[in-house]
Amino acid sequence: MIGNVAALRAEVKERQLKLQQEYERTGDACALLRGRSAGVDEVLCKLWTSLDFPATLALAAVGGYGRGELFPSSDIDLLILLPQEACPALQEKLETLIGHFWDIGLEIGHSVRTIQECLEEASNDITVQTALLEARLLTGNEKLFATFEKRLHGNLDPLLFFEAKKLEQQERYLRFNETPFSLEPNCKDSPGGQRDLQVIFWIAKAAGYGGTWHELHQSGILTHEGITLAESCEEFLRHLRIRLHLQAGRREDRLLFDYQNTLAERFGFVSTDARRASEQLMQVYYRNAKAVTLINTILLQNMGAALSPESEQVPQVLDEDFQSVGNLLDIRDEKLFERKPSAIFDSFLAMQESHELHGMTARTLRALWRASDRIGPEFRADPANQAAFIRLFTSPRGVVHEFRRMNQLDILGAYLPNFGRIVGQMQHDLFHVYTVDQHILQVMRNIRRFTMSEFAHEYPLCARVMSEFDQPWLLYIAALFHDIAKGRGGDHSELGTADARVFCEEHRLSTQDTELVVWLVRNHLVMSQVAQKEDLTDPEVISNFSRLVGDLRHLQALYLLTHADIRGTSPKVWNQWKGKLLADLFFQTQHYLEQKEAPAPHGIIAERQAEAMRLLRFFALSDTVHERLWKQLDMVYFLRHSAEEIAWHTRSLHYRIFNNQPVVRARLHQDGEGLQVMVYTQDQPDLFARIVGFFARAGYSIVDAKIHTTAHGYALDSFVVLDIEKRDNNREMVAYIEHELEHRLVHQTPPEAPSAGRLSRQVKHFPIKPEASIRGDERGTHFILSLIAADRPGLLYAVANILAEHHANLHTAKITTLGERAEDVFLISGGDLNESASRIRLETELMDQLKI
């Protein structure tokens, strides 16, 4: 038997290789899948025969193997059907069979059951029931297998099966965040993947509607033109999954960055200066996925209506073009959009205007899908269509739902061709996790939520600002255009500005409204850059930003768009600290605009000192408690720290101004997540590197640092740190940080390098070009060091060590992490920075460290 198993193993390998070579030659995906299935059939039948099983048993293929579709690395699912429970002798023989499965190199998933056990498992688990529905006899007792099939189908309720598969699909969608548009989608299980097509056939088979696209057409479930689209989508996914398995050399259905570029080349895509081959492939994939989700929606709706006749209701006429069927919008004439293209937008307006409508009938969806071809220059130039499109923005409800529906049906891209170009376009900037079109719709969703009372607790400031903003619908238009020029080359903000201006003028927006939308598109990145990269305690920063904004309306609009934009990039990019920075910039700019002139620095300092004194009185401290410490602090300190921080420092240090021992104090952040940490100590070598190394090893990232040296030579440094590991134990860590960091500073232990971490796949495959620049400030006393690099564990520690080696004094550090991208700015002085050659050496060393 051992020799027989070895021969079968060799046969499996040889057949697999021949099938692969034939596929490479002919490109026939179905032949590969059928050939592999037939080859496994033959090998398994030989093995079954060689073990001389009783004639009362049956061996059946189930699942994908039962369909006769066996991908190169897919599992081979088997059912060993018994007439009754196995005796010990048979059990031993079955164990031998299962061992041989693995010996011959097959990835076997098996179950050994009686018919009754199959029925019980099927009734308890929809996945088991689905797999058994596709059972195919390989060898053994035909009568037993026929009885099994008869009883399985006899126990099957097509309507209950339909409802269960819909629920199962909803749960599957939730696992993938309900979007086909993630950057590394699963081409089998993600929405828009192969599973969405398989669901259609499972339900159709259970209901007796057929097992091919043509049979579904004959059953009235699918239109003739739908056959071509469905077959095209299915063929693309077959080729994609086959090539993915062959490239990975194992079962892998995720389109990981590791495989995307090679896959793209296999499909014939070639990289250009503007777009990688992988981006071109993925855009095709996303558009295919969009079509698959639509096919799935329409056909499940058709089958649901056919399976549940009692749900058929008398249509209720809405107007001359539309009616409602149940809670679905329906066209009264199949050819409505052909004879009256303007009704295209009317259908979406009808959805917005009726609270009772929750969707569209299958024939309405099909008609709209076909109607995208009716949207040409003449349609776009029609004032009635332009007015209807603007009404879609101004509706009090359903804005996001209908724009998503228009995108799904290719209506939005047909009406706005520039939007059509970014549908399915990837963004490899390492912090967007959605395609460009999905990001835009996500930003529109966020803006919409700012208007809804049920989300006010989540976005309190945005909700308040939005309630004061007079025309929220203008923000939807700005959101629609803010990234519309991505991927064209050049500055997408400027290119998008031109598109937005043309749109506003063609759609007859007022001069004032046009100016606002255009200004927002041009400047949509500015507020986040100022908030995250500049010193908000510097009056000049606020003054410059206020001059750019000009008035409160522009400030409100930019704040709302910026907040929505950042939150719409990725769940990982947004945090409370970014929210606080944006809010601080908003309030300071609002205050500046209300004053109409820049407040004098001494006025700001006096205000902060007065407020700090007021806060100190709450702790029953005297009015002179601050004097000794404040004598050691200069104007820069008071400009860079808030009144609350000044009071906290004073309360902690007023009685130990000349302390020989380091003082470390930590607390929960007052205005956001994370911790605030204050370090007060006589200056010592490598101080910043010690602190950075400590936080990194403790699992914290530094998001803000204010480094200050007092007049009497003490370091007074403040940090805001976030827990990288999301341990939710910040309160418990306060005592640990105070004790452990203080201990290290007392004993001046050498800086501890953080443990090395792995780079993400995104950084590996879409590297960021590192940048390091040093420029003098306007006063000529300090230098601004700017760094851009792929974020990774230990990056800040390495930078701190290099600065220490050059004896550079660090005054402030602005630490910004955007997804996988680190953008840090340091204010430094001292050492040999005044010499040009020394600055070049420092830049060179930093660049070497930033390179991966």
What does this molecule look like?
Residues 1-317 are annotated as: Uridylyltransferase. Residues 676-755, 784-852 form the ACT domain. It catalyses: [protein-PII]-uridylyl-L-tyrosine + H2O = [protein-PII]-L-tyrosine + UMP + H(+); [protein-PII]-L-tyrosine + UTP = [protein-PII]-uridylyl-L-tyrosine + diphosphate. This is Bifunctional uridylyltransferase/uridylyl-removing enzyme. It is a single chain. With 852 residues, this protein is α+β, with helices and mostly antiparallel strands. It folds into 4 domains: 2-156, 2-Layer Sandwich (Beta Polymerase, domain 2), CATH 3.30.460.10; 164-312, Nucleotidyltransferases  domain 2 (Four Helix Bundle (Hemerythrin (Met), subunit A), Up-down Bundle); 416-592, Hypothetical protein af1432; 601-850, no CATH class. It has 39 helices and 16 strands. Strands 9-10-12-11-15-16-14-13 form an 8-stranded antiparallel β-sheet, with helices on both faces. The protein has a 4-stranded mixed β-sheet with strand order 3-2-1-4, sandwiched between helices. The protein has a 4-stranded mixed β-sheet with strand order 5-6-7-8. Helix 8 runs antiparallel to helix 13 (277-307). The radius of gyration is 33 Å and the shape is globular. The mean pLDDT is 88.
